[in-house]
Amino acid sequence: MNAVWSMVHAERAALIDDLTHLTDDQWALPSLCGDWTVHDVAAHLINNAKTTRLGIVRNMVRARFDFDRQNAQGVERERGATPQQTLARLQQVANYTSTPPAPLDSRLVEEVVHGEDIRRPQGINRMYPSEAVVRSLQYQARTPVSLGGAKQLIAPVRLRATDADVSIGDGPEVCGPALSLLLAISGRKSALGDLDGPGVPALE
Predict the structure, then answer these.
(1) Are strands 158-161 and 173-176 parallel, antiparallel or unpaired?
(2) Residue 198 CA: distances (Å) to CA of 76, 88, 138, 173
(3) What pLDDT digit, counting tens, does each position of 131-171 carry?
(4) The sheet that has 158-161: what strands, in order across it?
């Protein structure tokens, strides 16, 4: 558990460092995460870091058990009036160890995937620790779609990372960098261009 939290905290710190160098205009750019801007994703990560097992129940009740509405309300609640204010809030929660009633690896997935939601549109490259990416990929692969994972999506294919010793599933192969595999099965279609193999169409 401590090892996973160390990776989560390291990813938060790295993202804070990257956000520090962005202009206000860059904060306003679209992210890879739906209709959210970079600023929105940063606010979402603040909300994630503050989420507790009891707190998420209260928030889901307020959102009438609509997960998307609950996320949108969290962004609205945590988004500062300026990027600097939001960045300061993110810095304040960087070492939190709060979590909803979900496996701890889900916190790592959030940091890695949303980190790329912010970085890729900015052309920022991060050399993630292999263990953080592989753990995130394995978690998404075994977690049902209904819980934010990709278990049913990847059922027909075999994922093989070209930069790590990991292979998941059976069927037509999808190969590429572990980070791109993670992003693709997490719904980031732009990452499909990094992948090869006869199984790629199954992820489109």
Answers:
(1) parallel
(2) 42, 45, 21, 6
(3) 999 999 999 999 999 889 999 999 999 999 999 999 999 99
(4) 167-169, 158-161, 173-176
